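# step 3/5: fold
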Amino acid sequence: MSGLLLLSIVAFLQNTPSSAPYYTEASIANTAASIASYYAPNSFVTVYGVNLAFATAALTADDISAGMLPTALPGTGVRVLINQIAADLWYVSPSQINLLVPNYLAAGPATLQIEVDGLAGPAIAITLSAVAPAMYQIDAATVLAVHLDGTEVNSNSPAQPGEVIVLWATGLGPTSPEQLPNQLATAAATLATSDFGVWLNGMPVDPSLILYAGVTPGCAGLYQVNLKLPDDTPPNPEIQIGWSSQMSPAQLILPVE
């Protein structure tokens, strides 16, 4: 589902008279890809709706205690329950909530419900996939990547064939060692599956060029892929990551010159 369609759903919800939180299955989307019904344990999800909070707040460093993430942001009274387990919250507002799906949930049917000061919204049936690979983007057509000096890869500063870059993603599944619930990753941990891949223009990259694929230390729910671009990488290739059975969304490019 496109971001434009999600905005249309939000506009519809805003015309729904109610004092309770209100949202639908179609308004629950993968944060990175803006696609509904595309999420997995330890992936970021955005819920759009109305009456989702009485205040606006974003996660700050002060909200994290000894590496533990909050399941409620101060002064908001908002909780998001998935299978009755409180999710970690990143941002809440009357029309949008960003959350991290608990990493110890199993793939399969689940129920998502939002509570605001004890006032419950609808219990929405969702389905969690084992993985839901999605790369973060700088715009509707371009993935987010950085050079090794931390600067953004973009049309003004494209990557070069043979260069090592870092891609940022969500929904890449379990790692080894496993991530602790509700906690920031304290060290690197690689993906638990061995057949993770990267595709450029529909062709798989040599696995030896994937230097690291796993969690980002000091973060939660954020994965990174350290990739050495092949020497014959063409300009601005389409890029996908994931598994042959479940790739990230297509039609996104990586700026390469």
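# step 4/5: annotate
The chain has a mean pLDDT of 93.
# step 5/5: archive (pending)
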